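We modelled the chain as a single entity of 358 amino acids. Its sequence is:
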Amino acid sequence: MPALSPSCTPPRRRKHSSPPEDFDSAFSPILHSLLSTAPRTLTPHKTQAFLGSLRSLHTTYIATDPLRANRHGSADLALAAFQKHISPWLVKVLDIASEWDPEGSDSAVQEIVADIADLMAQLCGRTAGAGTVTRTWKFDRLGDVVIREPPFEEADVGFQTWGAGVLLAKLIDDLTIPIPTTHPILELGSGTGLVSLVASLAGANLVYLSDYNETVLNNAKFNVEANGLDGRVEVVRLDWRELDTESKSGENSGEGPFTTSIGTIPRSARFHTIFASDCIYEPSHAVLLPRVVDILLSHSPDAQFIIVLPMRDRFQMEVALFEKNMKHAFVCAEQKTMWREEDPGMEYRIYTFERLLS
């Protein structure tokens, strides 16, 4: 791969004043309580209590009286603290809440989901009531890509284009990651589909854009058509658990395509290139993703799985577990650390995996 450009080195950070003591004294005990409580032990009642405390802090130090906050230098610092520590916790709780109420009939649980959606959206610079947002991403070589982002409460974590996906798309655009033109490409956990769209614009003859959330996939279909890539990007529903179960039972060795409610993947398909970004925020993801890649990656010597992961403190255990599980069938041919100018405090790790030689 070409050498990384200077823009990929850690940017010089501006010096900020320290957060005011009243924010620290209010935030620290709540954060300590969150970190010392295993997410799987949470109950709806306990979660509501945590969310109430977080909402109060957010209102006091971030959302209310911005002029006063700016004079103290605390609004941006408080927001950064929430984004670093609270956003990952919210994502985990959102996943657990779906297990509390799989049918979506418990009003108390649905209220929790709505509260998480609202707070998460605000931490990402959007409000829950903002609804659908359309953004244009500009790339130096490939031009503009139009992306529609659905409301958080409808699309879960696929509601926005995350930084890891943007970084991966830019590495494709600047030719740091070359795109094969003779073999189909698969993206796992595609979300809004930016990476798949950019890979297609870069010359891929066919890209399979996959996710499990049907609202996310329907939105991705819109993005494919909005960018004139219908027929070149195939949108498919791919549930990692279902695929892993089929593989263990031998069901996926038969004829015909993988059965999905949206789109199809040929059952014989083995991809020379698989992409993924920011899709590990549960231990189960760290176990399932290596298995899915093992099922779907070609055994060709030049086959590669490329994934970009943000190094969030909250998910260090999951990332370490992912790295360990990948060693069963793959070798990490290359690993780089990069930063984005848009979020200089976040470190990103770019992995390129190849199959172990037999």
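As a brief sanity check on the tokenised model: Confidence is low (pLDDT under 50) at residues 1-20, 65-72. The first helix runs from residue 21 to 35.
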